[in-house]
Design a protein that fits this description.
The complex is a heterotrimer of chains A (428), B (163) and C (539).
Chain A lengths: L19 H6 L5 H8 L2 H11 L11 H6 L9 E7 L8 H8 L1 H15 L1 E8 L4 H16 L15 E6 L9 H8 L23 E5 H13 L1 H5 L9 E8 L5 E6 L4 H8 L9 E5 L19 H6 L8 E6 L4 H15 L5 H18 L7 H12 L7 H26 L11
Parallel strand pairs in A: 1-2, 1-4, 2-3, 5-8
Antiparallel strand pairs in A: 5-6, 7-8
Helix pairs in contact in A: 2-6, 2-9, 3-6, 5-6, 6-9, 13-14, 13-16, 14-15, 14-16, 15-16
Chain B lengths: L3 H12 L8 H12 L4 H11 L3 H8 L13 E6 L2 H5 L2 H12 L12 E6 L11 E3 L2 E3 L4 H12 L9
Parallel strand pairs in B: 1-2
Antiparallel strand pairs in B: 1-3, 3-4
Helix pairs in contact in B: 1-2, 2-3, 3-4
Chain C lengths: L2 E4 L2 E4 L6 H7 L23 E4 L6 E2 L10 E3 L3 H16 L15 H9 L17 E2 L4 E3 L9 H8 L6 E4 L6 E4 L12 H5 L5 E3 L11 E8 L8 E9 L2 E9 L12 H5 L14 E2 L6 E2 L2 H19 L4 E4 L6 H15 L4 E2 L27 H6 L11 H9 L5 E5 L3 H4 L5 H6 L3 E6 L4 H5 L2 E4 L8 E4 L5 E4 L12 H11 L9 H10 L23
Parallel strand pairs in C: 1-5, 16-17, 16-18, 18-19, 19-20
Antiparallel strand pairs in C: 1-2, 3-4, 3-5, 6-7, 7-10, 8-9, 11-12, 12-13, 14-15, 14-20, 21-22
Helix pairs in contact in C: 2-3, 7-14, 8-14
Classes of the chains: A alpha/beta (428), B alpha+beta (163), C alpha+beta (539).
The complex binds flavin mononucleotide, iron/sulfur cluster (3 copies) and FE2/S2 (inorganic) cluster (2 copies).
Chain lengths: 428, 163, 539
Amino acid sequence: MAFEKILTRYQDVPNYTGTIDEYIAQGGYQALPKALREFQPADLVETVKRSGLRGRGGAGFPCGVKWGFIPKDSPRPKYLVCNCDESEPGTFKDRMLIEEEPHQLIEGIVISSYAIGCHLAFIYCRGEFVSGAQVLERALREAYGRGFLGRNILGSGFELDVHVHRGAGAYICGEETGLLESLEGKRGQPRMKPPFPAISGLYRSPTVVNNVETLSNIPHIVLRGAEWYASIGPPKSAGPRLFSVSGHVERPGNYELPMSITLRELIFDHAGGIPNGRRLKAVIPGGSSAPVLTEQHLDVGMDFESLAAAGSMGGSGGVIVMDDTVCMVRVGEIVSRFYHHESCGQCTQCREGTAWLHKVLRRIEHGQGRKEDLDVLLDMCDNMKGKTICVLSDAAAMPIESYLAHFREEFEIHIRERTCPFEGRGAF
Amino acid sequence: MISDETKKRFDALVKRYPEKRSGLIPILHEVQAEVGYLSPEAIAWVAAYLTLSPADVMSVASFYDMLHLEPVGKHMIYVCQNLTCSLLGAEPLIRHLEDRLGIRMGETTPDGLISLKRMECLASCGTAPAIQIDGIFYERVTPQKLDELLEKLRNGRLRGSRA
Amino acid sequence: MPTLKIDGVEVTVPAQTTIIEAAERLGIEIPRYCYHPGLSVVGQCRMCQVEVERMPKLAIACNTPVADGMVVSTRSPKVEKARRAVLEFYLLNHPLDCPICDKGGECPLQDYTLAYGPGESRSVEEKIQRVKHKVLGPHIVFDAERCILCTRCVRFCHEIPKTGELGVFSRGDQSEINLFPGKVLDNAYSGNVIDLCPVGALTSRQYRFQSRPWDLVRHTESVCPLCSNGCNVVLDVRHRQRGEELLRIRPRENPAVNRWWMCDEGRFTFTYLHDPARLRVPTWREDGPRGEMAYDDLLLRVARAIRRVVEAHGPEAVGCIASSWQANEELFLVRRFFREILGTPHLDFRVRPVQFQPSDASEDGILRRTDKTANSRGARDLDLRPGPGGLDAAGMITAAAEGRLKALFVFEEDLVRAFPDGPLREALGRLDLLVASSLFPTETTALAHAVLPALGFAEKEGSFTNFQGRIQKIRRALTPHVASRSLPEALRELALNLGRDLGGIEPEQVWAAIGERPGPYQGIAWKDIGDLGLLPEES
Ligand SMILES: Cc1cc2nc3c(=O)[nH]c(=O)nc-3n(C[C@H](O)[C@H](O)[C@H](O)COP(=O)(O)O)c2cc1C
Ligand code: SF4
Ligand code: SF4
Ligand code: SF4
Ligand code: FES
Ligand code: FES
């Protein structure tokens, strides 16, 4: 099914390098003057609310509603922080957006800042995005040069500075309050909520944190209208979404599609299906924190509601596809190793639980499992969920629960036979 | 220990932020690039520069995977060990690297040239398996490709930035 | 003010109160590790979770403000499971050290595990090994395996002395409390981390292995005597074969004085009380060498000498230098004895510049004060100062040198040290009678005719008045040496020998007399002075 590319339409322009001239040539920086001239900030917030745009960073929170939480009467400065920490395993769309089309993001940031009354914005890039950060710096310089940033933007009287800030390698800095701590020069330890960032965020001031992809949508909403945007995809999951498809597919990559697409269409029509004539075994549909789905779920829609109804989540849009050579205990070991490594360590359940999960799963994978282990694992997951400062602890527990729910037999075989049955068959 | 020129850059950098402590991580990146690693002296310098306690700065530095409190090699190779890269051959790649360099992940070659480090998902899963050498991504890496990269690295023909 | 229900009981508290504080008012202790009322709230340990009706998740009591109509359960099955889980997670890597751990018996991890913990370990994973006995500073040793990362110690150093020596290094389960390389934990308040640490990770080098908490026979509430702040303390005393021994001093919460803290000097300076060099028996020296003498005989001789001086030169030939180390009750009796019974105006306590108002000041904006004695304020309030025509301390020394003063009493002060310049030795040498009381031999006692062993603050009952004017009780924690007497006992005997009555010497009786006189303490009775002391203007 043909679908009009919006965020990635530049991909159809030959030899596109994302400079400001190329961006302008394909219609860029038209939304900004329109926003500044035709909209009051409050109208913009309303428009984004009506568009139905939901956050693309993981939680899917309605973007306009979040903007609306910013107190209008606060004497403190307001900040916008673009979350470009992209670290959710299986997700690689934000990196593409900043490296290939940085001005779309910058235009989105200026419009969003205007909407919430912000005059200083930051783009927090994960530390590993060395070249991505350089591309953004260059693009910012271009935008300043053309008067899209700085004092009196396009003669409107609105002023805004934007800086790129690089982290230094910690997944938890993707969590918005961990990010703010890190941006303040501290350990990236998530904060207790409430207060939420909209009330007390960066430097204890009202702050909006939005994902790169979320903000990249903003110019299009302004230019083409909330109704147009809301008409794309299912009513509660409006607009295009970038799905990062990786793993055992013929054509891994980012696919921009409406969320009315099904998992089957995404994997088989767009990403070309499973290579080497193998069968699909498991799919993680929204980054490694999302519970796993199997063949039986292939017809699920890729919108937030349908994925939740299927027992998983839309998350970050990272779709990891696994064929039937894959050992799910090994997957559990790798996924739990990740959360073990990334827990910030504040909360007891998460600090100790992520480590324990990993150790038990590693033991089972290496043939040292005990019968009791599986129930202990499930109880441990229950003890980790819903009890901590941020949801990393939940994100570590939920996938493991789902592997046990769908593939318990595989775990039992490991324990019974004291070895991984996939070993020697190209276990990874 | 820190050149005047670098310090001038820091003076400008911290002005970007309403609170100068925000400059800490960018400064640590640069000091690490200049000194090689974040030695206790380097940390103490940064602490004094930002009027923080050295324990505070060390505590922050030790939180982040890319900030090194122990000496590391001139070149840093990060290998993604997360799910997609593992599905597509990260472990054989890691074994290959370890064999070629005669060191394990987390170690540095005796000549101080190369350090190896396991990393989590590098946002390169669409082109897995992925590695980074001195901040530059290399994707769909195979053992053969790795050998070529190591060769270039040894001959100083691989560009990259440690900052 | 919102009214809420905790475990079925209603309580009304000011808005902004947290659940943990509201529960405290009902006497319900919600288990906690990271929360401490004197430190910032971080909500990290997750031990204090409670169930609140209509909240989907458990709430942490330490950071959830109360609301009107809230219904809280601290004991529901969901809460108990969550609590058990936190303890199970802690114990995964906690060493089996309890039998050899200084904290054993007073350890919140041990206590909560017994009360709420999992019965058996479900883990077969190896425990993480960490550094076991790292000396952090002059007073503190650290056992990283026992640490549960509550970060109280880190927050304390950042927030109270603001020295920030400690930090959490690394992240996740690699996290560890540590110092910056080459630094030590030696701020003036470092000992507080021992009390704050909810496990045996930070322990006292002084107290380490000295005792098990259940060996202690007494926990006596008292006041630190080492500066005019008067931090409230508990004296932990153990009975040993060779007698009682003060093993540990801990701060006692008093919001108006020291909150939860005390300084290291006050906490760790007490072994002098058990020093064999202390004066234990009275001694007398006339022409020959100094010799021990029974108390009664000594006091007879002192009385005789006083009478001789007064008969020959009048009461103005007698002087007394009292001390701000002395308790209010002692000071009152000293004043009564010298001003009223003997009738001399020469009375003073000021032998340090800091005792001349207003030079006592805060040393660091925290607790410590520049007056390093306990009771200058009490001595001032009780008017231990020269009467009409009387001499101050320096004046008495001059008078002695000039032969005008014939008898001098010096309580608990070493004049030779206090007045190093000038002809002090000669002055004292000219006296017909020099009586000195002291804990230890000093140059002054060496010159004295009569030497009375003094009692330490832990050996007497009474009160000190801190710099604010707050009267605070000190209580006897240690039984004094058999041969010693309290100063009130000695003064009463001396008065009797002179044919006079000093009046009652028990604190209640002394306060009955103090309360009758005009002055700052008028109307106050001993029983009015509560556990947290009494500020006269507030009563
Ligand atoms: C453990 C964890 C990691 C996260 N990582 C990211 C991330 O890398 N990028 C991102 O945009 N959001 C991430 N989030 C979500 C953010 O907290 C936040 O919801 C998001 O940035 C809000 O932007 P949005 O509303 O535009 O999605 C993460 C959340 C959690 C709990
Ligand atoms: S849940 Fe985990 S990552 Fe999140 S704050 Fe707690 S310890 Fe840190
Ligand atoms: S040493 Fe004690 S006080 Fe400090 S973090 Fe560990 S358990 Fe808490
Ligand atoms: S501050 Fe003064 S009263 Fe308090 S403990 Fe220290 S010496 Fe004692
Ligand atoms: S899993 Fe290796 S880059 Fe994402
Ligand atoms: S006491 Fe409340 S979370 Fe630690």
